[in-house]
Write a structure and sequence with these properties.
Fumarase C, Chain A, domain 2, 20 helices, mainly alpha, two-stranded antiparallel ribbon, single chain, Fumarase C, Chain B, domain 1, two-stranded antiparallel sheet, 3 domains, 8 strands
Amino acid sequence: MTRIERDAIGLLEVPLNAYYGIFTTRAAKNFQLTGQRAPRAYIQALGLVKLACAETNQGLGLLDETVSKSIVAAAQEFIEGKFDDQFPIDVIQAGAGTPYNMNANEVIANRANEMLGQPLGTYSPVHQNNHVNMSQSSNDVTPTSLRIAALLLAQPLMTALDQLSQSFKEFAFKYRHIIKVGRTHLEDAVPMTLGQEFHAYYTMLEKSKRRIQFAAEELCELGLGGTALGSGITTHPNFQKKVVARLSKLTGFPLKPTEDLFETTSGMNPFVALSGALRTLAIDLIKIANDLKILNMGPLAGLQEITLPEVEPGSSIMPGKVNPSVAEAVHMAGYDVIASDTAITLASQAGQLQLNVMTPLIIKHLLGSLTLLSNTCTMFRVDCIEGIVVNDGTIKKMFDTSLVTATALNPYLGYEVTAELVKEALSSGRSIIDVTRSHNLLEETDLAEVLSIERTTRPAETNAILKKRIQGSAAYAQFRDEYFGKK
């Protein structure tokens, strides 16, 4: 069953009980591209804009009180999600988000009229353009709604990211005394502690938090009131200041009116900045997940310094095999965010003259990345990090048989002597400590001091007296003579 509605193009059938109207019907038919609809946060933000505008217009004497109250009531239901099924338009659509804006206008107008006893599709006494869209244009409503939606979604992301970073911090503190092989170029390098390794991950994520927070601050500058291109045509002189203040109160965000409405209408750089911060977080997560996969590698033919939690069988053909599935999912999520950042960058540079029409694409990818990263951080923490098992026996065995402590001998024995000791250790299959002992180059107490965890995993002054005593010993002179010839 349908009703007939008219617009500037002509007549069209609209589903009889639909709260949306002819504009939405045309858009839903025209744009069937992704099968994806608007994110819930964007619908919520759009409703908040409509509510704030109606209250502001009434306060300025531009809207009848009855009309305004009905719009506000309908917008509140719209914000709460009661009409999400009436928002059917594909996320990739006509430029500047006009279909989204008109979809909201039609739903809110029809619901407001229904509250006033009028049938759907009459648009009287509340009209979708004249009243719900008063003092607005899609060109300022869409980027404003996107800013608010991004701020809404940034909150759960920051919570999830903070919880993840704290998990790494707690892990680092718990295992701060476990000394292990540090690696560069995937080769044995110098000693470090497991705590230092994981504390670096905590620091990475903390820095990403700050980048996101900084980028989000710029989103609080709104261009609502600029209407079509920034001039504010059709608005009351006090509209911009009052409507932003109302939105700030409704959302709890420190929103402020922009000083240049033309810039916020045509420029999308704040979204690029936030997307860039999200891309950096994605890169951090990918790096961390990749490290954990390497440390987990095994169980018998790899490093196996840690064991990641088993979340599912790893193979349809190899019985008992378990894969680092969560870490792999983190990789894929990160790659998706990086791809979205490229789309946002391209869309943002595509602005022409006084308008950037690519906002629907930015909505799709920016809000999608915020949600994806929030879910990824939670999954990574709950299903991976909090269940890591440290194989300290394996770590100790690898450390004890490695040559990574050789670098700590360098200030006392010199580079060339230490290099010869390393070569001998490699060729004989012995540890660097055993080889050093065999040449009586250091006394046991001196060896313990030089190779202590305090001196091998953090900065420490060279013991000048010990160095002089070692290099002045007969054993040292004999070693140099044997390996380098008498001077």
